[in-house]
Amino acid sequence: MPTPHVQSLHVYPVKALAGSGPGEAVVEPWGLAGDRRWLVVDAEGRQITQRQQRRLALARAEELPGGTLRLTAPGMPPLVVQVPEPTGTAPVEIFGNVVEAVPASLEAAVWWRGFLGVESRLMHMDAPERRRPVDPRYGRPGDTVGFADGYPLLLTTSASLDALNSLIAQGDHADEGPLPMNRFRPNVVIEGTAPWAEDDWRRVRIGGVEFQVAKPSGRCVVTTTDQRTAERGKEPLRTLARHRRFGDQLVFGQNLIPRGAGTLRVGDPFEILG
Fold this sequence. Notes:
The protein has 3 helices and 20 strands. By secondary structure, it is mainly beta.
């Protein structure tokens, strides 16, 4: 078995859209730099993710120098969106939390309405005072997150995906496998560990940065969405329900909270601290 190390890094500038796989990424207290700092919302300011609009899987966001965003999607002209001035905020509802964010240009709203077919806006969050608190049961006072589901980073392992795909191959929907890692939309993928070893981790070091392992990641219908076609199936939720049920959650991966700063790089060593 190879020495545990970072196999890949992933950053998603707009929540629920396809992102990028950079060779390195800066760790900020609330996640990787540039990760999920933008969110699409409906006319009432409620989050729109692949849970509500699976077509979001077909759109891609690329962060350009200075934080500028380039959006692409089937049937739509590419659009470059400037980071809005941090004035004129509006409330955004995400997973029951209401936070303030800054609307992007009217041109961006028109672009999203054209792609999704519903009134929608693109919102930006960057100011520290606007970030959401992490669930206090799993973090410390002052721990925050942007537009990610609940925690700054999500870690998965290639060995656990291999194990899951083996289970899928034995099930009723074997034709849906093997599944790629992009179904789980991680930030960090680790290679060289045993399958499901992450269940027992409490503290880890990636490169020179330490992280608290906050809690397992409960999975939803997004994982059943093919990220290339936006079509949905039964897996992996059918197999996770049989083999990876923790209480009322179907689990794959671990949520992380940074306990230091630095830069992560593909190939960085991975160490279990506790």
